[in-house]
Write a structure and sequence with these properties.
Blueprint lengths: L1 H15 L8 E5 L4 E10 L2 E6 L3 E6 L3 E5 L4 E5 L5 E7 L4 E5 L7 E4 L3 E4 L7 E11 L4 E14 L3 E15 L6 E17 L4 E12 L4 E5 L2 E10 L3 E16 L3 E19 L2 E12 L2 E19 L2 E12 L9 E12 L1
Antiparallel strand pairs: 1-2, 1-5, 2-3, 2-10, 3-4, 6-7, 6-10, 7-8, 8-9, 11-12, 11-23, 12-13, 13-14, 14-15, 15-16, 15-17, 16-18, 17-18, 18-19, 19-20, 20-21, 21-22, 22-23
Length: 342
């Protein structure tokens, strides 16, 4: 009897012990196939899963029926900030997510998942050049540069920008050269998102225009904004705030005013490879809302060519209601250039 009891316990241990490794994450395909392993990431419509036998396997998410994970993963849905969630299998083309422990699972369409386990935020931006050289009856030299840099965290955003254009023209009869363009601009801006769409901002902008005899215009300000849309094909935001404007002219000396700032920015990609954009900024003085103000408008079309390279047609409109004596209120530029985005 004692011998039978000794044989029983090892057999019981073998029965209760797992016979193989845990199933781990599982992906179920529309054709009925299954793939087990560990989901590494998802981006650009591709799902990467690490399997024991085949290593990392990349599959098209449009062919996935549903999937589940053994541990929480970071999931980004549409334009919302990524958040950690447990993911369970759902009906066709859906999964069930539970962002908080004990929370009821919520159905999420697989087509709405923009990323899983996204990497750390990366800088995005663009740099472009434009130029014009002529000789003969008209001798012209013109060169321009523009750059933009931005980084987006779940609740914060940094934006930097810079621009410089210089041009001169030679009188063919006298050989004397005169400057036709001498404009420089730099800006920095920080946004903090209080909700998914509502944010506060602080920023500053500096400008110089040698032809307009503007030695320096400095415009620091703060305010609030609303991000109506934020995504790969459409971005739209409105801002309202307060700004202090300091201007120093070559002959007229300096002046300053305090006033509101109203602005909006939109870019839209109706189809690849075309991108359209438009920005507007209106800054009047509280002392003379209709007679002393600045208006800046940018509009353009960008055509992607190859691996980040693009061609661009841009329109710039600058209006100063109180310019230096003898100078025009309006400056307009039509610019054709090329650049690189990342």
């Amino acid at each position: 009897m004692r011998q039978k009891t000794l044989m029983f316990f090892p057999m019981l241990i073998l029965v209760l012990s797992p016979v193989g490794p845990a199933r781990g994450d599982e992906v179920l395909f529309l054709n009925g196939d299954r793939l087990s392993g560990t989901i590494v990431k998802a981006a650009g419509g591709k799902l990467t899963i690490k399997t024991e036998g085949a290593g990392e396997v990349v599959v098209d998410m449009s062919k996935v029926k549903t999937f589940s994970t053994d541990a929480p993963v970071v999931v980004a849905v549409k334009e919302q900030p990524p958040e950690s969630a447990n993911v369970g299998a759902g009906p066709d083309r859906y999964v069930q997510t539970a962002p908080a422990p004990g929370a009821l699972p919520q159905p999420v369409a697989i087509a709405d998942i923009s990323a899983i386990n996204p990497g750390p935020p990366a800088w995005t931006g663009s740099f472009s050049l434009n130029g014009l050289l002529t000789s003969g009856n008209s001798v012209t030299e013109q060169l321009g540069f523009r750059g933009a840099l931005s980084k987006r965290w779940p609740h914060d955003r940094l934006t930097f920008g810079a621009e410089y254009s210089f041009g001169r023209q030679e009188d063919p009869s006298t050989g004397k050269k005169s400057t036709t363009i001498d404009y420089a601009m730099a800006l920095a801006k920080y946004d903090h998102f209080l909700t998914k769409k509502f944010y506060g901002y602080v920023g500053t902008k500096a400008e110089r225009d040698g032809v307009a005899e503007l030695e320096l215009r400095l415009a620091p300000g703060t305010g609030v904004g609303y991000q109506w849309f934020e995504g790969p094909t459409l971005n739209l935001s409105n801002e309202a705030g307060l700004v202090w404007v300091y201007e120093n002219y070559k002959r007229a000396g300096w002046s300053e005013f305090f006033g509101p700032r109203l602005a909006y920015s939109v870019d839209w990609t109706p189809f690849q490879p075309l991108k359209l954009y438009h920005t507007l900024e209106y800054i009047p003085s509280f002392e003379d809302l209709g007679g002393d103000y600045l208006l800046n408008i940018d509009a353009g079309a960008r055509l992607a060519v190859w691996k980040g390279l693009f061609a661009e047609l841009r329109y710039e409109f600058r209006y100063d209601a109180t310019p230096a004596a003898g100078r025009h209120r309006t400056d307009q530029r039509y610019i054709l250039g090329a650049g690189w985005s990342f």
